[in-house]
Design a protein that fits this description.
This protein has 198 residues and is mainly alpha-helical. It has 7 helices and no strands. It starts with a helix and ends with a helix.
Length: 198
């Protein structure tokens, strides 16, 4: 067990505590909203830290390549589901984003015997925008500002929907080459949508 993998596991184990802070006092206490944001922020920063340590120390492993995207999906799922339960985030947004995330995860496991698909650059950009948008929904901000942030999140949802359509079309061809092409196509579609809608 190297340090990057330990940080990834710690990120997953910390999520219940983040959720607890998010729901503290019914989720309406401004103090606990800020605390929850800080906790999610610290946990999210470990995603950046573990990748840098792995590359710097040459500790990149197949286990880490597989576990890191799963930890990212658990992170965003905890935040999205929590905010939807608190009625701060529409459920349709949560469902669309998580459907895309689950689809990519299933694809990774489907081809794991023939190779591990690492998180791609487009996927990391999407995750960054998601985390950026979701984070603001945790804070006690004015409604007008949240509306602007919601429009950014709609752009992320549109990109996720494009990836879902591509996943359905290509899922029947679960081979290593086709899977890699699928990830590349998703990245290109994501970047194209971001160019159009932002």
């Amino acid at each position: 067990m190297n340090l990057p993998n330990a940080l990834t596991i710690a990120r997953i184990l910390a999520l219940p505590f983040c959720a607890w802070a998010l729901f503290k006092n019914g989720g309406d206490d401004p103090t606990w909203q800020v605390i929850a944001w800080c906790m999610f922020f610290v946990v999210g920063m470990t995603d950046v830290l573990d990748g840098r340590i792995a590359r710097k120390r040459n500790q990149i492993s197949s286990f880490g390549i597989l576990l890191d995207p799963i930890a990212d999906k658990a992170f965003i799922a905890t935040a999205l589901i929590g905010l939807s339960i608190l009625e701060k985030m529409p459920w349709w947004v949560t469902i669309v984003i998580l459907t895309r995330e689950v689809g990519i995860t299933i694809l990774r496991f489907a081809v794991i015997k023939r190779g591990v698909i690492a998180a791609s650059k487009g996927g990391k950009i999407k995750s960054l925008l998601q985390n950026f948008s979701v984070g603001f929904y945790m804070l006690p901000l004015p409604e007008a500002l949240l509306l602007c942030i919601f429009m950014l999140f709609v752009c992320v949802v549109i990109c996720a929907m494009c990836c879902i359509c591509l996943y359905v079309c290509v899922a029947c061809m679960v081979f290593v080459d086709c899977s890699l092409c699928f990830i590349i196509i998703c990245d290109c579609m994501f970047c194209f949508c971001m160019f159009l809608f932002i």
